[in-house]
Amino acid sequence: MNTATLLINFAYVISAGLFIFGLKMLSSPATARQGNLLSALGMLLAIVVTLFYSGLDYKWIVVGVIIGSVIGLVAAYKVQMTSMPEMVALFNGFGGIASLLLAWGEYHQHPELSVFIALVTFLSAFIGGITFSGSMVAFGKLAEKIPSKAIVFSGQHIVNGAILLIALASGVIFAINPESSYAIFLLIVMVSLLFGVTSVIPIGGADMPVVISLLNSYSGLAACAAGFVISNNILIVAGALVGASGIILTNIMCKAMNRSLANVLFSGFGATTQAAGSGKQEGEIRPATAEDVYYILEAADSVAIVPGYGLAVAQAQHVTQELGELLEENGSEVSYAIHPVAGRMPGHMNVLLAEANVSYDQLVEMDDINPRMDTVDVCVVIGANDVVNPAALNDESSPIYGMPIIETHRAKTVIVLKRSMNPGFAGIQNALFFNPNTRMYFGDAKASIQALVAEFKSD
Amino acid sequence: MNTATLLINFAYVISAGLFIFGLKMLSSPATARQGNLLSALGMLLAIVVTLFYSGLDYKWIVVGVIIGSVIGLVAAYKVQMTSMPEMVALFNGFGGIASLLLAWGEYHQHPELSVFIALVTFLSAFIGGITFSGSMVAFGKLAEKIPSKAIVFSGQHIVNGAILLIALASGVIFAINPESSYAIFLLIVMVSLLFGVTSVIPIGGADMPVVISLLNSYSGLAACAAGFVISNNILIVAGALVGASGIILTNIMCKAMNRSLANVLFSGFGATTQAAGSGKQEGEIRPATAEDVYYILEAADSVAIVPGYGLAVAQAQHVTQELGELLEENGSEVSYAIHPVAGRMPGHMNVLLAEANVSYDQLVEMDDINPRMDTVDVCVVIGANDVVNPAALNDESSPIYGMPIIETHRAKTVIVLKRSMNPGFAGIQNALFFNPNTRMYFGDAKASIQALVAEFKSD
Amino acid sequence: MEPVFLTFVFVLTIFLGFELISKVPSTLHTPLMSGANAISGITLIGSLASLKTGNPTVAIILGTLAVTFATINVVGGYAVTNRMLEMFKKKDDGGAK
Amino acid sequence: MEPVFLTFVFVLTIFLGFELISKVPSTLHTPLMSGANAISGITLIGSLASLKTGNPTVAIILGTLAVTFATINVVGGYAVTNRMLEMFKKKDDGGAK
Ligand SMILES: NC(=O)c1ccc[n+]([C@@H]2O[C@H](COP(=O)([O-])OP(=O)(O)OC[C@H]3O[C@@H](n4cnc5c(N)ncnc54)[C@H](OP(=O)(O)O)[C@@H]3O)[C@@H](O)[C@H]2O)c1
Ligand SMILES: NC(=O)c1ccc[n+]([C@@H]2O[C@H](COP(=O)([O-])OP(=O)(O)OC[C@H]3O[C@@H](n4cnc5c(N)ncnc54)[C@H](OP(=O)(O)O)[C@@H]3O)[C@@H](O)[C@H]2O)c1
Known about the structure:
- The complex is a heterotetramer, with two copies of chain A (about 450 residues) and two copies of chain C (about 100 residues).
- Chain A is built from 18 helices and six strands.
- Chain A has helices at about 5-25, 30-50, 60-80, 85-110, 115-140, 155-175, 180-200, 210-230, 235-255, 260-265, 270-275, 290-300, 310-315, 315-330, 350-355, 365-370, 390-395, 445-459; strands at about 300-305, 335-340, 365, 380, 415-420, 440.
- In chain A, strand 4, helix 17 and strand 5 form a beta-alpha-beta unit.
- The longest helix of chain A has 28 residues, at about 115-140.
- Chain C has one domain.
- The longest helix of chain C has about 40 residues, at about 55-95.
- Mean pLDDT of chain C is about 85; it is low at about 90-95.
- Chains in contact: A-C, A-D, B-C, B-D, C-D.
- Chains C and D meet through helix 1 of C and helix 1 of D.
- The structure holds NADP nicotinamide-adenine-dinucleotide phosphate (2 copies).
- The site of one NADP nicotinamide-adenine-dinucleotide phosphate has 33 residues of chain B, from helix 8, helix 13 and strand 5.
C-alpha cells in the first residue's frame, strides 16, 4: 500500500462527505441546487484522484469518458421535462450495466477469488444485470416503445421463480469454485438480463415509477457489491446512499397508492384492472365549451387547480400558470392541489409547476386541501384522473380502493379537462365525470386552457 | 486473521446497529427506555463476543468486571435524582481514564509504533487524561467538595496555553520516535491530567453542565482514538456517536444561555460577575406568608409554575406535583413552564417532574408560555432565579444579557420561593424580586410548599 | 479483516442514508431520484481504476464499456438534476417578483 | 489501508450521530447525556481484548484498572439512565390515570 494509494483513498473520504452534504442540502428547495452541485463536486474529486493511480490505460479512459459525457450531456439537455421518468430509467440502467461490466472485467483478469469475493462478484453482476434490462423495459414502457400495459401470461410466477432459482444456483456454484466457472459466470450474466425483462414486463406502465425507484435502489446495491469486489469504500458509501434513497422513495409511493410493494411487483395490476373497470359507464356526462367554463370561472371566489399526468403530456404547465394569474387578477383565490402520486414520478407536478414559475405558497398538499374542499367554488382538474377518482373512497371492489385522493367531488363545481372518456393509467372508469356538479371540457389540455386564456383576455 | 476474529468483528457490526437503534429510539419518551435497553444489549453483545478472543487473561478480567459492576450498580441505584449531573461527570471521567490506560497498556507492550498509530496513541492518552481530571474537578464543584466558584488568577490563559503547548510538543516528539520515548509518554499523561484540572478550575459551577457535556464528547473522542490504536471499529463507532452527541448538547446549552462556547470556557464567568452584580440591591421587597400566598393562589384562574435549580436542591418535585393537583381541584388551570437550562443539566426539570408523575401535557416550553404570559394570573417561581431574570432582556451590562428567559415579570402576580436574597448560579441580583407585583415567599422550597399544601387541605 | 471494515461502512451508510433521505420533502422527490441516480454512477471510479495498461483485450473492452456507461449515468444524471433544480430556483425569484 | 477504512467509519458515524442526536427532544436531554456517557465506556471492549495471558505486570495492572473503570462507566451509566427513563415511563401511566 503506497502513499499515493493512501492519499487517493483519503480523498475518497472527502468525496463521501460531499455526497452526504449534498443529500442533506436536498432537504430544502432553497439549497437543493447547491446540494446537487456539491454532490457533483464530490464525484469529480473522486474521478480526478482516481486518475492518479499508476498504470492506468488513459487512452481507453479518455475514449470512454468523452463518449459517455457527450451522450450524457446531450440526453440531459434535450430531454423534455415531461420525459424525466424515462430519462432516469435509462441512466439508471447504464449504471447497472457498468457494475456488471466492472465485476466481469475484474473476474476476467483475476479468476482466483475467495468465496466472499466470488459472492459479491456474483451479486454485482446479477443485480447490475437485472437493473440494466429491467430499466430498459421500464424505459420502453414509459416511452411507449413497447406496450405499457402489464403483459401477463399464466405460469408467469413459476417461470420467474425458476429463473431466479437457476441464477441463485449458478451463484452458489460460482462462489464455490470461481476459477473454473467462466461459463457459469456468462450464464449468470444472461440469466440476470433475462430476469430483469421477465420481472418487469408483467408490471403495468402506471407502476413504472415504483419500479424505476426500486431499480434505482438496485443500481446502488450493485455499486455496493462492486465496491466489495474491489475493496473500495467510496463505491460502498455512494451505493448504499442510493440504495437507501431508492427504498424510501419506493415505500413512499406504495403508501401513497395504498398498495404493498408485493402487490405492485406481482399482481399484474394494469392488466387485470383494465378488464374490471371497462363496463362501468353509468349516468350522463355534461360537456362544456370554453365559453361555459369561462363564465363558471369568472364567477368563482376560490379555485383549486388539480394537475395530473395529462398536464405533463400536454405540456400545459405554462398556460396553466398564465390561467392562474388571470384568475387571480379577476379576484379569485387560486391554489394548486398536488396529489403525491399525480403524474408519473413522486413530485412530478412540483417540478412542472416550478418550471412554469408557479410560486411555492400556492401549492397545497392533499391533506391540507381535503378538509376545506367543501368551501372551494371550482376545482379545475387538468389531466388528472385516478388521483381524483372517488371509487378509491367508496368502491371496495375497485383496484385503487383505499388510495387517498383529492376529493374534488366535494367541491361546488368540478371542471375536468381531458381529451376523451378514456381511463387513466389505473385503467378504470371515474364516477366523478358523471357527477351532476361536474362539467367535462374535452380537448388537449394545452389547447383547452389556451382557449380559456383567450376568453379572459378578450374580456 | 482467523475465523474467530472475523466472527467477533461481524458481531461488532450488530452491536453498532444496536447502539444506533438505541439512539434512534431516544427521540421519543415512549420508546426511550427500550432504546436504552437496546443500547445496553449492544454493549453486552460486544463484551460477550470479545471474551472469545483467544489467550485472554480471564482472572484479571473477572476481577475488573466484578469490581466495576458492583461500584457502578451501587452508585447508579444510590444516587439521588438531583445529583445526576455529578454522577454523569464521575462516570464520564472513568471512561476517559480507561482510554488513557488502554493506550498506555498497548504502548507498554508494543512500543514500536508507526507514526499514525503513535499519533492516535498520544490522542487517546491525552484526551482521556483531560477527560478524567476535568470530570473529577467538575464532579467536585457540583458536589461542592471544592469551591464551585470560578477560580481565576492572572496569567491563567498563558499558563494553560503553555501547558497545552508542552503537551502538543511532547505529542510530536512521541509520534516521531515512540520506541525510545517512554518518559515522554509519562510526561504526556501527567500534563494531560494537569491540563484537565487547570482548564476546568477557572470555570464557574453554573457552567459545569456545559463542561460535562463537552467532556462527554471528549470521552467519546478518546474512545475513538483508542479504536484507531487497536484498529477496532466498534470503539470508533461508539466513540463517534458519543462525540457527536456531546457536541450537540454543548451547543444547545450555549445557545440557550446566549453565550459562545469560548465564553463559557475562558471567561471565568462565575468569578467576575459575582462582583459585577453584588451592589445592585434596589427597591423594596414584599415578603409573604404561607397564608398570603394561599389566598393569592386560591383566587387565581391560571397558574404557571416555573421550577429551577432550587426545586432540585430542595427535592420539592413531589410536593410541587401535589400542589399542582390541589390547584387544579380548586379550578385553576395549571401549567409548568420549563426553561431549557433551568437546573443544572439540559432537561433536568423534565426528569424531576417526570419522577413526580407530572403529566406531559402540563409541561410548556419557554417559547410557548412567553407570548401568553400577560394572561397568566400567578407565576409561582420555585427555586428559579437566572432563568427568570429580566436583566437578560433589558440590562446590556448584565453578564446574562441576551439569554432568553421565562418572562414571569409580565404575569399579573409573581410568587418567588427561595431561601434568601442570595443570587443564583450566575451570581447576579434579580430585579424581578423588587417588582411591585412580586411577593417573596422565603424558606426551603419543600417546606414552603408543604405549608401551602396544608393550607389548601385544612380548607 | 477487510470484509468487516467494508461491512461496517455499508451498514453505517445505510442508516445514514435513511436519516438523510427521509428529510427530503415530497416536492423534491423527482430531483432526489435523479440525483441519487447520478450518484449510483459511482461505479465509474471502480471502472477507471480497473482500466490498466497491459490488460487483455477482453478486459479492455469490458472496462471501456463500463467507463462509457458509467459516465453517461454520472454526467447525464447530474446535468438533468441541475436542470430541474434550476427551475426550482427560478421559481423562488419568480415568487418574489 | 486500515487507517483509511477507520477514517471512513469515523466520518460516517459522526454524520450519523449528528442526524440521530438532533432528533432527541429537550425533554430527554439528561437521559441522552447519561446514555451517551454509558456508550463511551466502549473502551471496555478494547481493554478486555488487551488483557492477555503472559502480559508483563505493568500491562496487567494497567489493563485491570482500565477494565474496572470502563465497567463502572458502562454498568453505572446504563443503570442510571434506565432509572431515569423508568420514571418517564411511569409518568405516562400516571398521565393516563
Ligand atoms: N406520481 C407517481 O409517483 C406515480 C407512481 C406510480 C404510479 N402512479 C400512478 O399514476 C397515476 C397518476 O394519476 P393522474 O390522475 O395524475 O393521471 P392518470 O390517472 O393517469 O390520468 C391522466 C389523464 O390525463 C388525460 N390526458 C392525457 N393526455 C392529455 C392531454 N394531452 N390533455 C388533456 N388530458 C390528457 C387522460 O385522459 P384522456 O386520455 O381522456 O385525455 C387521463 O385520464 C395514478 O394511478 C398513480 O397511482 C403515479
Ligand atoms: N440546565 C442546564 O443545562 C444549565 C447548563 C449550564 C448552566 N446553567 C445555568 O444554571 C442556571 C439555572 O437557572 P435557575 O433559575 O434554574 O437556577 P439559579 O439561577 O441557579 O437559581 C437557583 C435559585 O434557587 C434557590 N434555592 C436554592 N436552594 C433552594 C431551596 N432548598 N429552596 C428554595 N430555593 C432554593 C437559590 O436561592 P436561595 O439561595 O436564596 O434559596 C437560587 O437563587 C442558569 O444560570 C443557567 O445558565 C444551566
